[in-house]
Amino acid sequence: MERLQQLSLHATASTQPPVAPPHPLDPLTTQEIKATSLVVRSHYKGKTLVFNTVSLREPIKRAYYDWKERNGPKPPRLAYFVVTENDHVGVHEGVVDLPSLTVIESKATSGVQPILTPSDLQNTEDIVRSDPRVIEQCEISGIPKEEMKNVYCDAWTIGYDERWGSSKRLQQALMYWRSDEDDSHYSHPLDFCPIVDMTEGKVVYIDVPGRRRKVSKHKHSSFHPKHISEKFGTSENPSGFRDDAKPINITQPEGVSFAMKGNVMNWSNFNFHIGFNYREGIVLSDMNYNDHGNVRPLFHRISLSEMIVPYGCPDFPHQRKHALDIGEYGAGNCTNPLALGCDCKGVIHYMDAHFTDKDGEPLTIKNAVCIHEEDDGILFKHSDFRDDFQTTVVTRGKRLIISQIFTAANYEYCLYWILRQDGTIKLEIRLTGILNTYICAEDEDIGPWGTVVYPQVNAHNHQHIFSLRLDPRIDGDNNSAATSDSISGPGATGSPENAYGNAFCADKTTFKTVSDSLTQPSTARTWDIFNPSKINPYSGKPSSYKLVSTFTPPLLAKDGSLVKKRAPWAAWATQVVPYKDEGVGYGRLYPSGDHVAQWSGDGARGMREWIGDGKDQIENTDILFFHTFGITHFPAPEDFPVMPTEIFDLMLRPRHFFTENPCLDVKPSYARTTKEVKAGDKGVDECTLDVDKTSQLAFTKTSGSCCKK
Ligand code: ABN
Ligand code: CU
């Protein structure tokens, strides 16, 4: 308490506002976080506060472009905060104006709880281990009380449990046992689930199943090098690792071909701002493409706005396992520091991420965002068969990758935002880490709801479903969206309109209202986001970005389920709503609501509110395009004890945006015209010019020469 008083005295004494970073979308600096918490402390003087969130309140879109494009003033520098107070359950949130060091908005919201931070999850194990009723349950499971130090739990938000609703700030503790500190505990789940009141710091209930299962006596299944050595090591090869580990090194002798001015990236005609926040993690904003001097807007903002991992076991209390990892924990809060040479290879630029700790002190994750380039294979190529393919052009591409990795207790999500030189924007997700597991008895029939991935380990079926939020600005603020279906031509084979039966075309249906935009995927479906006022002079079609996304599983939870109530957006592949400056992050950011933890799913929040009666007009106006994608995961033994990365992706491709291949101006690696071939001229040859000094033949000593002479 003494420390708190000291800090609040400091708050009133501090008159100097922190220096703002250069760009209005730059995340808060550590000084700004500290200044915010001092102001907040003095605002709530006398209260015992726990800091939960201090993050940039981004400027509203109009204010941003007034500054950026219309010579207007710099938008106000604002910090958004959430604190909890011991005598009030719910969310205390507000906004601090940093230049004046004043709280300009504050409110208390009940019916929900704030996002859980890593620090909220760190004490739970100690609380659980020392609770006498948990010790008793461990004894029933076959773990004597002297062994409590070997009992572990993954602390999850309770999601929503109607026995308590949102009246207390609760966690469910998914229980496990290790025989040794270095074990992976996921091969030894326990069968009961304590509920912990975070404010009281105590266990309030324990869910105990009807059928008891003793902890498994099988050896732990782990994956660290010492366990691999124990498992596979031989006297000739004690490590047990495969003997094929020749290094693959990446060389970029001249460094990178991107430039960063603060957080603003310039790369191969793309220009955009890279932001990062506690919740969405990486945010790409104000993205433009320089089309031979004409700077054309693409997207105002791109981010992952929510996700849900619903599990499919119908038995109580497994219905509670449906983590909304972005809204309940934060892809930013859970982000990893990345290591050069392992997480990221090549020439890397890193960005740190700054959050608040529970005392309002800045907390920094070093190297949270990795920015680098990779060779991207062939960008385009054509050879002429007339001279045995000697007339040729082959141009290699490179790609820019902005990535982060976050840990959601058991799983790792590796997020790669990838730009290609043809204007394509890709998102690739690599899912790794460990399955969430539950115990099964040796003789148990677990039914169709999971897979036995190791003796006595049941991994329940589940889905990993994301919401991609796009705030498009394709050639301007007013955009439309449409489905684009590949369809066979009308009429039967032999009919006048399709005499040979081979006809097919793209059938585009523009969304007029929000209801029209609530679409489902089909095998032949893509979606277009376009500017109806900007027509391509060649194709006569509007300037577009096409969303190509094939990892689009149906939401398997039914109407009335907690999952569908709390993540209504997950039931549609797309939802397009008008942009509005409203909500915690201005501009309809979070489709499961501003505060997700312990939301019952009732009432109109987030996407349900934005859809409303579905009648809002969304044609040729400022729209937000949400896309649901992901995978359904039926676990298998190959996913255990740690899962090899499972990859899923989507892309946004320019279509009718350019008047020709936009990367013709990328220099080829090798090109010869027919005349050059006839005259024996070299043409463009980056191979024999010894530019590529590192390529070589695998089984001879000859180096260079990738190309036929
Ligand atoms: N998957 C649930 C979760 C995420 C982050 C931290 C704890 C639990
Ligand atoms: Cu999974």
Automatic annotation (TrEMBL):
GO terms for biological process: amine metabolic process. It catalyses: a primary methyl amine + O2 + H2O = an aldehyde + H2O2 + NH4(+). It is an enzyme of class 1 (oxidoreductase). The active site is at residues 325, 411. GO terms for molecular function: copper ion binding; primary methylamine oxidase activity; quinone binding. InterPro entries: Cu_Am_Ox_Cu-bd, Cu_Am_ox_TPQ-bd, Cu_amine_oxidase, Cu_amine_oxidase_C, Cu_amine_oxidase_C_sf, Cu_amine_oxidase_N-reg, Cu_amine_oxidase_N2, Cu_amine_oxidase_N3. The modification 2',4',5'-topaquinone is found at residue 411. Residues 1-28 are annotated as: Disordered. Contains 1 topaquinone per subunit. Topaquinone (TPQ) is generated by copper-dependent autoxidation of a specific tyrosyl residue. Residues 23-107 form the Copper amine oxidase N2-terminal domain. Keywords: Copper, Disulfide bond, Manganese, Metal-binding, Oxidoreductase, TPQ. Residues 114-215 form the Copper amine oxidase N3-terminal domain. Residues 248-664 form the Copper amine oxidase catalytic domain. Its EC number is 1.4.3.-. Homodimer. PANTHER family: COPPER AMINE OXIDASE, COPPER AMINE OXIDASE 1-RELATED. This is Amine oxidase.
